[in-house]
Automatic annotation (TrEMBL):
Keywords: Endonuclease, Hydrolase, Nuclease. Signal peptide: none annotated. This is Putative HNH nuclease YajD. The keyword Metal-binding does not apply. InterPro entries: HNH (IPR002711), HNH_nuc (IPR003615). It comes from Halomonas gemina. SMART domains: HNHc. Belongs to the HNH nuclease family.
Length: 124
């Protein structure tokens, strides 16, 4: 299989070339989010989302009425797509009921981008 051509580094104002999957040159590879590489290929059960998580997830869905909680806080009624950790496990969050919420895909994407930005700032 032919190799992909080098692409510009994703770090602002770098311009370096890279062939790495994460999109950063060697100088900026620390900016890549590590969860994708470390979790790749692992089953949900191995990642900590087995039977206990499924039961906890059902409880949270029932508690939140299957509605996206961030949308609800701003007056929108939207059905949920996932159960999310309010404080991510990577930042010290737990699986406790008060740290879980139902969330829709658009809210989840926005929240994940904010978390990734915080992680990049910590790593910089």
């Amino acid at each position: 299989m032919p190799q992909r051509p080098p692409r510009p580094c994703r770090a602002p104002a770098c311009g370096g070339k890279t062939t790495e999957q994460h999109g950063y040159c060697q100088e900026h590879e620390h900016l890549a989010t590590g969860w994708q590489r470390t979790q790749q290929g692992k089953s949900s059960s191995v990642r900590g989302y087995g039977a206990r998580w499924q039961k906890l997830r059902r409880v949270v869905i029932q508690r939140d009425g299957g509605l996206c909680q961030p949308c609800r806080q701003v007056g929108r009624i939207t059905s949920f797509d996932a159960v999310d950790h309010i404080v991510p496990k990577a930042e010290g969050g737990t699986d406790s009921h008060d740290n879980l919420q139902c969330i829709c895909d658009p809210c989840h994407r926005e929240k994940t981008q904010q978390e990734a930005a915080r992680a990049r700032q910590r790593d910089a």
